[in-house]
Structures are given as C-alpha cells and as structure tokens.
C-alpha cells in the first residue's frame, strides 16, 4: 500500500516538482495550496500555513479522505525582500510566520499521525541563504536558518519512534521567479556557483524523493545542500 505524502505549497515551482517526484515514486500525493488553482493529477486541499485552524482543518480532511500522511514536505513559503533599513516589522514577521512558524504548525500537526504510525518523514525545504546570508533577505534568511534548529529538535524528540526529520537546502533554481532576472544578473549568479549553472526544480525534487524513501531511513537531523556548491564552507 502506498504512503500518503503531503507537499505544502505544492501547486507550482519546486513544490510541484516535488509532488511529481513523490508520485512517480509511488506515493499518494496530496498538494496543499493557499491561493491560485490546484494542479491537475493530484489530490489537493486548501491550507494556509499561517493559520493553526486552517492547518488543522486541512489535516483532518486529508486523514478522512486518504489516511494518515506519512511523508510531510514543508515547502510553503513567501519572500518580502528589501534592504534592512527599509524593512518593516511586518515585512519581517510575516516571512517568519509563513516560512518558519508555518513549517512548525504543519510538522506539529503531522506528528499526531506519525506517532500512531511509528514511522514517517519530516522534510523541510530550506535555502542556501540560511548559511550564506543574502543582502535584502534578512527576513527570509532568518526564517530558513531557523528550520535547521527546528528540524534537528524534531529529530531528537521523535526519532525513537522511527520518524526522521531533515532539511533539504536548494541554491539558485530555475523557477518563474528566477526566469524574470535579467541575463547579466543570471550570468553573474551562475558564475558564483561552482557548477556554473542554476539547478532545475526536478534536481531538488529528486533529492526530496530520496530522503522520503526507505533507503534514507538512517538519515535524520541532516542539512542536505542541493546548491551546486554555492554554500561550501559555511
């Protein structure tokens, strides 16, 4: 019987690629989304990770329709970039609430079911900027950095129940957002990456699918960079 997998923010970009990879691996994938339209070919439920009530309702719906989720990919997140002197409290706290506290809300609720199953995977999608920092992204870098402490604490707290908890940290990825960068800026970014290019969303997704697999059952509390070497030494 296939495992139920949740991908938050899975209706586009890296999240959608992860959903496809998990489906290809034989999992029953449920995509959650806050706005827009759900992708075709997947079970889907609306969830706002900034609302505990919304997370609870979404999980209850998923459990009633498809069973207890065994693989949880906390991917949903936002950016509100800006220079620190112009960054408002709201710009900072909104990003922390969505990216870090949102991941906590999802993982906390998921743990109820995982403890019953006595197995499972918590996979948090981080970022290379958590290690390197990024001008104009104080809020985003802080939120992604916090995921590591979050994941490692989950790993220690519930690891004895057969539940792993890891962070997959992408670097620069070919997405709709990076596609809007000018050619000179793209070349500048690519030149800073040892492998000399952006990754595809599928390359990130394949690593997530591996961490979700039985072959990765002894990996927990890990930070797995998928950044072309950009974060080396940090």
Automatic annotation (TrEMBL):
Alphabetical keyword list: Oxidoreductase
Listed PANTHER family: 3-OXOACYL-(ACYL-CARRIER-PROTEIN) REDUCTASE, 3-OXOACYL-[ACYL-CARRIER-PROTEIN] REDUCTASE FABG
One Pfam family recorded for the sequence: adh_short_C2
Gene3D superfamilies for the chain: NAD(P)-binding Rossmann-like Domain
Domain Ketoreductase, chain residue ranges per copy: 3-176
Organism: freshwater metagenome
Protein name as it appears in the record: Unannotated protein
GO process annotations (BP): monocarboxylic acid metabolic process
GO molecular function: oxidoreductase activity
């Amino acid at each position: 019987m296939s495992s139920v997998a949740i991908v938050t923010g899975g209706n586009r970009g890296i999240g959608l690629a992860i959903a496809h990879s998990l489906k290809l691996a034989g999992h029953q994938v449920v995509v959650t989304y806050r706005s827009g339209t759900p992708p075709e070919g997947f079970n889907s439920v609306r969830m706002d990770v900034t609302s505990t009530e919304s997370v609870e309702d979404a999980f209850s719906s998923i459990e009633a329709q498809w069973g207890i989720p065994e693989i949880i990919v906390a991917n949903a997140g936002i950016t509100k970039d800006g220079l620190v002197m112009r960054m408002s409290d709201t710009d900072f706290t909104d990003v922390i609430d969505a990216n870090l506290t949102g991941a906590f809300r999802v993982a906390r609720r998921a743990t109820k079911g995982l403890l019953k199953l006595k197995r499972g995977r918590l996979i948090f999608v981080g970022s290379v900027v958590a290690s390197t920092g990024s001008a104009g992204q104080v809020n985003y870098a802080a939120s992604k950095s916090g995921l590591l402490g979050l994941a490692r604490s989950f790993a220690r707290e519930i690891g004895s129940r057969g539940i792993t908890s890891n962070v997959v940290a992408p670097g620069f990825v070919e997405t709709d957002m990076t596609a809007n960068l000018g050619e000179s800026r793209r070349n500048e970014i690519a030149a800073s990456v040892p492998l000399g290019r952006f990754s595809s969303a599928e390359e990130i997704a394949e690593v997530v699918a591996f961490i979700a697999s039985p072959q990765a059952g002894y990996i927990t509390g890990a930070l797995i960079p998928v950044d072309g070497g950009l974060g080396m030494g940090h």
